[in-house]
Amino acid sequence: MRLYADKLSETLNRSLSAVYLILGNEPLLIQESRLAIERKAREQGFTEKYRFNADASLNWNEVYDCCQSMSLFSQRQIVEIEVAENGFNAALGKELASLTATLSPDVLLVIIGGKLAKAQENTAWFKTLSAQACWVNCLTPELSRLPQFVAARCRALGLKPDNEAIQMLAQWHEGNLLALVQSLEKLVLLYPDGQLTLLRLEESLSRHNQFTAFHWIDALLEGKANRAQRILRQLAAEETEVIILIRTVQKELFQLLQMRQAIETQAIGNVFNQYRIWQTKRPLYSAALQRLSVPQLRHLLQLLAQCELLAKTQYSQPIWPLIQQLSLQCCLPQANVALPT
């Protein structure tokens, strides 16, 4: 069974599974999910807990002994196995699938790991593993869903934000949901009536959003100029290495140019498959490909080359204005052409 983290509590109230897969890229949701499972398990007599890290030094015999060797006087126990980032592979997957198939009834197994690629989800070992487990999806909410996420968190705490307050909370805490939880807890204490407005937020909170080069790239692909500039300003304030931004956008522009040339003779769906574009990212790439022509993409690459030259040779001349110019030109609605389907 697969479910999203916000539905876990409902499932736990109905029954407790023998195996849980907590997978994703959002630390807050992963932590909340593991604690919710542990609380419910302790209510049902799982009083002992053991933790293992699935790295090269792990002794699997110890894990099997822990999961199978139950004596008359042993307590029911929770066994957590944490997989390092990018640690999932076929060998580990088969080991975990084998382990889940031989669990003692008095053992609750919780496997924690990062977000899986689509190719990993489609492997035989993962299908075997997920068929035996409750899979809790702990992904960071998409930007479009973040206001809904914020509103749900506020309702759970008895807070009553207006629409502008919800938007500001989402904007100020994007990429840092742990800080969002802390901010909401602070607001509960400050405003017992629960009413949240822009004025109250500005008086009580500061920005906690965390942006990376990939947030900037998504804004460029989607053509959101204001958002792209806001992200750039924060990256500049944090003294992000310009070369990191240049290399990241360079890869995307070259790929967009190749894709733009390919869709002249192929259906866009085939091109997406060829370049292994995730389903969630396809609307962003579609927007960029409709907006940017081949000459425009070549012009952007030339401008990017100027950025790199300036960054590597003219240390006294500021580079960020040129990066901002590149960002704006990438977002301008210049072409808007129909793509073959």
TrEMBL record:
<keyword id="KW-0235">DNA replication</keyword>
<dbReference type="InterPro" id="IPR032780">
    <property type="entry name" value="DNA_pol3_delt_C"/>
</dbReference>
<dbReference type="GO" id="GO:0009360">
    <property type="term" value="C:DNA polymerase III complex"/>
</dbReference>
<protein>
    <recommendedName>
        <fullName>DNA polymerase III subunit delta</fullName>
        <ecNumber>2.7.7.7</ecNumber>
    </recommendedName>
</protein>
<feature type="domain" description="DNA polymerase III delta N-terminal">
    <location>
        <begin position="20"/>
        <end position="138"/>
    </location>
</feature>
<dbReference type="GO" id="GO:0003887">
    <property type="term" value="F:DNA-directed DNA polymerase activity"/>
</dbReference>
<keyword id="KW-0239">DNA-directed DNA polymerase</keyword>
<dbReference type="InterPro" id="IPR027417">
    <property type="entry name" value="P-loop_NTPase"/>
</dbReference>
<keyword id="KW-0548">Nucleotidyltransferase</keyword>
<dbReference type="Pfam" id="PF06144">
    <property type="entry name" value="DNA_pol3_delta"/>
</dbReference>
<keyword id="KW-0808">Transferase</keyword>
<comment type="similarity">
    <text>Belongs to the DNA polymerase HolA subunit family.</text>
</comment>
<dbReference type="InterPro" id="IPR008921">
    <property type="entry name" value="DNA_pol3_clamp-load_cplx_C"/>
</dbReference>
<feature type="domain" description="DNA polymerase III subunit delta C-terminal">
    <location>
        <begin position="214"/>
        <end position="331"/>
    </location>
</feature>
<dbReference type="InterPro" id="IPR010372">
    <property type="entry name" value="DNA_pol3_delta_N"/>
</dbReference>
<dbReference type="InterPro" id="IPR005790">
    <property type="entry name" value="DNA_polIII_delta"/>
</dbReference>
<dbReference type="GO" id="GO:0006261">
    <property type="term" value="P:DNA-templated DNA replication"/>
</dbReference>
<dbReference type="Pfam" id="PF14840">
    <property type="entry name" value="DNA_pol3_delt_C"/>
</dbReference>
<dbReference type="GO" id="GO:0003677">
    <property type="term" value="F:DNA binding"/>
</dbReference>
